[in-house]
Amino acid sequence: MKDLLCIEEEFMKFAVKLLIMTIILVAGFASFATAATHESFQEKRDSYFDTFTVYLENDLFAGTDRDYTNGIKFSWSTPFGDIEKTSLPAWSFPFFKQLPFVGKPNSKHAVSLSLGQDMFTPEDTESVAVVKDDRPYAGYTYLAAGFHSRKDHRKDSWEIRLGVIGPASQAEETQNIVHDLIGADRAKGWDNQLENELAIDLICESQWRWWSASIGKSLGFNVIPHLGGRIGTVNVYLNTGAELRFGWNLPNDFGSCPIRGGCETNSAFYDHSVSGSTFHFFLSADGKAVVHDIFLDGNLFHDSHSVDKEPFVGELMGGVAWQQGVMKLVYSYIYRTRQFKIQDENQTFGSLSIALSF
After folding, report:
1. DSSP one-letter string for 77-126
2. DSSP three-state, residue 171
3. Which phi and psi angles does 201 have, rounded to 5°?
4. How confident is the model at residue 228 (pLDDT cuts 50, 70, 90)?
5. Helices 171-182 & 2-35, crossing angle to 10 degrees?
6. In this structure, how many other beta carbons lie within 10 angstroms of the beta carbon of residue 124?
7. What are phi and psi of 107, to 5 degrees?
């Protein structure tokens, strides 16, 4: 316990330094963002892939080191525009025409490309043997292409993920590098992780900005429900939920999300309907009916350790979002119910995302 507290202290020092550096960077770009003209932004929005976003999730934000212990994702996205315009790459046209919901006429469309990695460990990372009463070690690295459309108060997204489960994901090596940097002990049971398997998943989610109201000139709130699902070798589930936002100059987007396929694309988020910065608090809930989870059910094509999963999993997320011109910063704290029968307790972890639109 003492070692975990030391690890948490070192990690939090690192996280605070990262946050301070981010705020300084945002402030440095603020003058540029405020002074830029509408025409210059419009010119930038005519180019491919103008927005870069980094997502980081880790349970050490909550003082633990178990279960879903780290997730990271890098995303590039295009502006929303017409299919015929140059803001979308030509290879995306057939996907918009064939996938349901996103090919509707008079809608605006965007594309995102992502590289991500998730890792999972049991609570006891000192044991070199299989921890039979806990989840298996697992790593997952993937490439994803997202296809998004929005019209009025609705956004639809499809995401295709191709990846690998197992040692080829390099999750063990990634965790070792981070633990060495912060002075934490390496987990000793990675030899028992799930075996190498290719992974392919198709994810769909729709969001609606239904109920909005203003309080005075700048304050307001809105509610953004969502409905989606995922089918593939990694996960099979249906999910639904909603997000409540309250704050100053609410942006014209569809909320803030953790690393969840199909949830959010920071695509050309610069909003000419508001001036200056935006700041708001948000609270969201998501519920999943889970049919398959490879990180709990074990390998599909190899013998591996597994545990009995829970058929229903819920999440609560609260956080803050700040956008200054072409910069956006989001931090949230996530509470997730037990994912498998013998899990000792529910999980909490932190999520940080930083986006820059060029």
Report:
1. EPPPB-TTSTTS-GGGHHHHHHSTTTT-TT-EEEEEEEEEEEEEE-S--S
2. helix
3. -140, 150
4. very high
5. 100
6. 14
7. -95, 160
What CATH code is assigned to 2-357?
2.40.128.140
Which range in 31-40, 58-67, 270-279 is most confidently predicted, on average pLDDT?
Answer: 58-67
Residue 5's φ and ψ, nearest 5 degrees, are -65, -40
- Written as six digits, the tokens of 202 are 């198709």
**Which residues 6+ apart lie within 8 Å of 171 measured at CB?**
117, 118, 119, 138, 139, 140, 141, 193
Residue 260, burial from CB neighbour count under 10 angstroms (0-12, 13-18, 19+): buried
pLDDT (0 to 100) of residue 182: 86
Return the H-helix or E-strand segment holding 52. strand 51-58
- The residue extents of the domains of the chain are 2-357
